[in-house]
Write a structure and sequence with these properties.
The chain is about 45% helix and about 15% strand. By secondary structure, it is of the alpha+beta class.
């Protein structure tokens, strides 16, 4: 959530940020209108509260003196009704104001490239793409041939975009996890296995709600299965004050994640590239704002070290402002070369 004082004081900055994201300024204009109404109503309500206190004190004084306070009591009752109406209107405006503020996305850094999905900037390519004298088979063909991926039985049990992983592929997954975890923890990141079911407050607090609600599986009582363990890690220290000298706090979290993949109909339907359930190892840091960009680049460097250690050809792509998620101020993707598809695909972000 953006700082209310910043949005109020620098609306043009927010307006420019929305334009760079390709979003209209309607929400900002609505926020500014509601904010003005809230401040006006708050002044009126506080004035009526003060007036009610003065009237109450005056009535008490009249009664102590044995006088008739009936007119003053009637006037205070009328004031109380106006105050109650003002408080209700104020509460409604504040609730709508918070809802609008939650929908305003983060402000991209000035040096983030402009544009949308097709305007990402390739910063570097690392590793030599392998050449074959035959047509490489993709991961699903290989997985079926080796009997380590079974999407047909998974479809019968769970529907599309699920898979059974078996045998050596399971061993490979945990070997990769152990390797990557070793690299990450050597850099000072503490391993954590977080809960994958969180309350809505955690989704709102990390900026994924309300924007990404359509991607989230929710239980009947409103709890959410996470699509990234960034959510429970970021929420782990909610309502706490972290001493500046303790920062940065660095965590490596491993968890199963779940996504509805709403809007992905027809995209990556083959194999296990875009699925509803998957496991992720992620890095997360709590740091001071002035440390954040250096910390982000440290995480990117560790991602590259892991890929280089695995000898996977990859490229680093800087995502354009119009393709950033709502919580992001900047984003880098490491895209691995997939011989079976003949193109780079996002592997880390």
């Amino acid at each position: 959530m953006l700082d209310v004082k910043m949005v109020r004081a620098e609306p043009d900055r927010v307006r420019r940020a929305l334009a760079r994201r390709g979003q209209p300024a309607d929400l900002l204009d609505r926020f500014l209108d509601l904010d003005r109404r809230r401040r006006r109503l708050l002044t009126e309500v506080e004035s009526m509260r003060a007036e009610r206190k003065r009237a109450s004190d005056g009535i008490a004084a009249v009664k102590r003196a044995g006088g008739d306070a009936s007119e003053a009591i009637a006037a205070m009752r009328a004031l109380g009704e106006r105050l109650r109406a003002g408080e209700e209107e104020l509460a409604a405006v504040e609730a709508e104001l918070e809802d609008v503020l939650l929908q305003l996305p983060n402000i991209p850094f000035d040096d983030v490239p402009d544009g949308g999905e097709d305007d990402a900037v390739v910063l570097r390519e690392v590793g030599e793409r392998p050449a074959f004298d035959f047509t490489p088979r993709d991961h699903l063909d290989l997985g079926v041939a080796l009997d380590v991926i079974d999407v047909e039985r998974a479809a019968k049990v769970s529907g599309s975009r699920f898979a059974y992983l078996k045998g050596d592929l399971v061993r490979l997954q945990f070997a990769l996890l152990q390797y990557a975890l070793g690299v990450i923890t050597a850099k000072g990141f503490r391993p954590v296995v977080p809960p994958v079911l969180v309350r809505e407050e955690a989704m709102y607090g990390t900026g994924f709600f309300p924007t990404d609600r359509a991607q989230v599986y929710q239980t009947t009582d409103g709890d959410c299965l996470v699509g990234t363990s960034e959510v429970p890690l970021a929420a782990m220290h909610m309502d706490e004050v972290l001493p500046a000298e303790s920062l940065p706090l660095r965590y490596a979290r491993y968890s199963t994640c779940f996504r509805r993949e709403a809007g992905a109909a027809g995209r990556d339907t083959r194999g296990i590239f875009r699925v509803h359930q998957f496991d992720k190892l992620e890095m997360f840091s709590f740091c001071l704002p002035e440390q954040s960009r250096d910390e982000h680049r440290l995480i990117l460097a560790i991602e590259e070290e892991i890929l280089q250690g695995l000898r996977i050809p990859y490229r680093v792509v800087r995502i354009a402002a119009g393709d950033l998620g709502a919580p992001a101020a900047e984003k880098f993707d490491c895209e691995a070369w997939l011989p079976g598809q003949g193109r780079y695909r996002e592997l880390t972000s």
